[in-house]
Design brief:
The structure is a single chain. α11 links the parallel β8 and β9. It is built from 13 helices and 9 strands. It is elongated. The chain is 45% helix and 15% strand. The model has no long low-confidence stretch (mean pLDDT 90). α5 crosses α6 and α6 packs antiparallel against α7.
Length: 273
């Protein structure tokens, strides 16, 4: 049995007992450590030398990756936090110094010993109380859109008031976190808003009222995609819709300009049929 291949299948960082339970003698595990095939990030753990450094640090400190860090690792909406977010039980102690944002809290789903990344339910529950509402909503809706978790599952968990609020607001059909953010920021208008509305053979990111279309360009809006988007915009205009197309950068860094474009359109009743 190739011990390195076994550890790699387990994610590169694994409890020693799991390797022993797979039939590898403890003496062979120790020999692999002495020869440099494996490392010991912490007592009771072994890791490959090229294993994910974040996982090795988590094993060393006795924590799990959680919150926005765990969400990003699962391909959910990434808020690019400056720090790694880790989780510990309320009375747990760090086994090593770790520069991170620490969440000492009881998880909504019990953490299986040996797992270094929190279950998505735990990550979302912590996100709810850690992040600004619009960022948390973008992450939650990203999880729902990718079928990482179901609303029905989340409803059965002991969530905080902020988590319950996110349950009420989350929509599984949102195409991207940008739509979630726009809707949160424009909710004060108290106008009908429909995400991923199907118009003239294509979906639009956001329809306000009957005729105001907001399209948000991501990094994939180039070449043929850009040509297709431009053609659809022209067809929307010919059909009586008003289209406002903005970039991700504008949304995140120049919101006041985007909001003014929307408000100017509404002031001219361009959202009405």
């Amino acid at each position: 049995m190739d011990i390195a291949a076994l550890v790699r299948r387990e994610g590169g960082v694994v409890l020693t007992v799991r390797i022993a339970d797979a039939g590898v003698p403890v003496s062979r595990i120790s020999a692999a450590v002495r020869s440099g095939v494996l490392e010991r990030p912490s007592r009771g753990w072994v890791a490959l030398p090229d294993a994910d450094p974040s996982l090795k640090r988590a094993a060393e400190a006795g924590v799990v990756l959680t919150c926005v860090t765990a969400a990003a690792r699962r391909g959910l909406w990434d808020v690019n936090p400056r720090q790694v977010h880790v989780g510990l039980a309320p009375n747990a102690k760090l086994r090593a110094v770790l520069r991170a944002h620490h969440h000492w809290c009881k998880p909504v789903i019990p953490r299986r010993p040996g797992n270094l990344v929190d279950p998505v339910e735990n990550a979302l529950a912590i996100v709810a109380d850690c992040q600004p509402f619009e960022d948390a909503l973008a992450i939650w809706e990203s999880a729902l859109r990718q079928n990482t978790v179901a609303l029905e599952t989340l409803r059965t968990l002991p969530l905080s008031p902020q988590g319950r609020r996110l349950l009420d607001e989350s929509r599984p059909f949102a195409d991207a976190g940008t739509e979630s953010i726009v809707c949160v920021r424009l909710r004060w208008l108290k106008l009908p808003m429909q995400r991923q509305a199907w118009i003239l053979g294509h979906r639009v990111d956001l329809l306000i009222g009957k005729r105001l279309v907001i399209q948000i360009d991501g990094g994939h809006h180039v070449d043929m995609q850009r040509a297709s988007d431009n053609e659809h915009d022209a067809r929307l205009l010919l059909a009586g819709y008003h289209v406002i197309r903005v970039t991700y950068w504008q949304l995140m860094h120049d919101w006041h300009t985007v909001e003014k474009l929307v408000l100017d359109a509404i002031a001219r009743s361009l959202h009405l049929a």
